[in-house]
Amino acid sequence: MENISFGLHTILKRMSPSDYISFEYKLKDKLDDFKVEENSNPKFIAPVLSVVRDYSPNDINEASYILIEAVGASGKTELTKNISYSLSCPVLDLGRTKVVAGNSLTGLLTKRLDRKDSYQYMDNISEGRSTLIIDALDEGYMKTNNQGYLDFLDDILSLNPQKECPIIMLGRYNAVELAANYLYEKEAKFITLQIEPFTLNQAKEFIDKAVGSSALRYETTYKDINTSVKNYRTKS
Fold first, then answer.
1. What is this structure's pTM?
2. Which residues contact 145 (CB under 8 A, 6 or more apart)?
3. pLDDT tens, 194-205?
4. What are phi and psi of 163, to 5 degrees?
5. Domain ranges of the chain
6. Are residues 169 and 139 in contact, defined by beta-carbon separation less than 8 angstroms?
7. Residue 183: is it exposed, middle or buried by C-beta count within 10 angstroms (0-12/13-18/19+)?
8. Which whole number is the average pLDDT over 162-190?
9. Are 133 and 121 in contact (CB under 8 A)?
10. Which candidate, 99, 28, 90, 70, places its Cα nearest to that of 173?
C-alpha cells in the first residue's frame, strides 16, 4: 500500500481557509502555557509528515483534527512554533499547564481572555475560521489519570472544529494513539500523521543552518561530515 506523506506547506495551506481569522486577542496574562509564537526560527527545517494508516479513518481534506505523533528530540517543538507563527494561532502547551481535566481548555480561554473575546474565539473555531494547537499530549496525560485525559479530550471536542480549519494536536505515540482511539469512538473526523526522520538533503541543510558562520572555524570537521553524507548517498 502506498505511503502518503505531506510537506509542511500542504498542512499550512490545509488550515488556512479564505476567511481565516488570526488570533489577535489581548491576553490578560502572558504565560508560556498559552501563547502565539511571535518569532520565526531561521534555522528551522520543515519535516515530512506521513499518514499513520491504522489511526487515520479520514483523509486530510475531511479531518477536523490533525494528530501529529513523534518520538522525543524529533523537532516537534520547533514544528509547533513554526505553525503557530505561520498561522498566528495560539499553542496550549500541556507540558506547562498546572492541570489537565474536563474544562482545562475552555476554562483557560475564559480565564485568559475577556469573556466576549473568549466566546468569539471559540465561535470562530466552531465555524471553521480559526484554529488552535495543543502540544505535549503525553505530558498532559502524565499530569492526570486516564479518565481525566478523556475528559480533557471531551473539552476539545466541545469546540466542534470544522474540516475547513482543523485543530492540531501533538505528542508522543502512546498519548496520541489513545486520543485517536477516543476520537474514533466519538465519531470525530481526524487524521494521524507522524514526523519522519530527516532525509539526507534535510540533514545536510540542518547542518548548514546549524553551523552557519562557524563552519570556517571547524572547516575540516565540516567537510568530513558533508563528505560522509555524500558517500552514504552514493552507497544507497
1. 0.86
2. none
3. 999 876 676 676
4. -65, -20
5. 5-197, 198-236
6. no
7. buried
8. 97
9. no
10. 70
Q: Assess whether pLDDT exceeds 60 at residue 158.
A: yes
Distance CA(109)–CA(114), nearest Å, equals: 9
Question: Residue 144 and residue 135: Cα distance in Å, rounded?
Answer: 16
Residue 135 has a pLDDT of 97
Q: Within 10 Å of residue 175's Cβ, how many Cβ atoms?
A: 22
Q: Which contiguous run of DSSP H or E holds residue 34?
A: strand 34-36
Q: Which three cell numbers stand for residue 155?
A: 473539552
Q: For residue range 112-156, what is the model confidence (pLDDT) as tens digits?
A: 999 999 999 999 999 999 999 999 999 999 999 999 999 999 999
Mean pLDDT computed over 173-199? 94
Which CATH architecture describes the domain 5-197? 3-Layer(aba) Sandwich (3.40)
Strands 48-51 and 5-7: antiparallel
